[in-house]
Amino acid sequence: MTIERILVIGAGTMGRQIAMSCALSGYQTILQDISADALSAARKELESWADSRVSKGKLEQADAQAALERLSESTDLVHSAGTADLVIEAAVERLDIKEQIFATLGEHTPAHAILATNSSTLPSSRVAQASGRPAQVCNMHFFNPALVMKCVEVVRNEQTSDETVSAVTDVATRLGKQPVLVNKEIPGFIANRMMGAINAEALNLAQQGIASIEDIDTTAKTALGHPMGPFELMDMVGLDVIDVIAQATYAETGEDADKPHPLITEKVQAGLLGRKSGEGFYPYS
Ligand code: 3HC
Question: Atom 52 of ligand 1 has which residue's CA nearest to it?
Answer without folding.
Answer: 143
